[in-house]
Every structure is written in C-alpha cells, then in structure tokens.
Amino acid sequence: xxxxxxxxxxxxxxxxxxxxxxxxxxxxxxxxxxxxxxxxxxxxxxxxxxxxxxxxxxxxxxxxxxxxxxxxxxxxxxxxxxxxxxxxxxxxxxxxxxxxxxxxxx
Length: 106
What we know:
Layout lengths: L4 E4 L4 E2 L3 E2 L5 H21 L5 E4 L2 E2 L11 H12 L7 E5 L6 E5 L2
Parallel strand pairs: 1-4, 2-5
Antiparallel strand pairs: 2-3, 6-7
C-alpha cells in the first residue's frame, strides 16, 4: 500500500468458503487497491512507523459477491477504523454484464 501501511492476508478463513489458506490473486489485488486509496490518510493519523492491516476473515453472500467489491469494502473499513474522512467512490453497474465499475475521487 505504502512504505508505512502493509497488508497481511496470509491467514484468512471465510464464512462462505470455509477455511482456506489464502485469498486468490484478484482478491488480494482488490484489497491492495482499496487500502492504497486510504493509506495516506492512515499515515497521517497513525504515529507508529508501520501499520499492519491483517485480513483474517472474509464473510460474503454468495449471490452478491464480486472480488472487485473488496476494494471499497476495505477502504470503508479503514475509514471507520482510523476515523478518516470518507472518500467518494462512484459505482456503476454494466447493463449487459452486470459487472460493477468503481470510479474513485482523487
């Protein structure tokens, strides 16, 4: 995410998947994207030299889950956890594919 904000996903389990050893590459990429969007804010409020975010569980609804949804989910979690100002993330859903697209305010 940054020089001072790190993400650990080495020991995760999931309510839907049951116990499993790791997120897949697309899930990790989405988590990194979302946490990267708020890492500068975390650095401003955290005085410690390093902040490790350890993702240990994934709870999803099978019908609603898309790996890309993890980016705004972890960003929203971090905003709450570290009392950050919310970032705007505009979400659109493609008509033909039903796939979500996220447009982050910079």
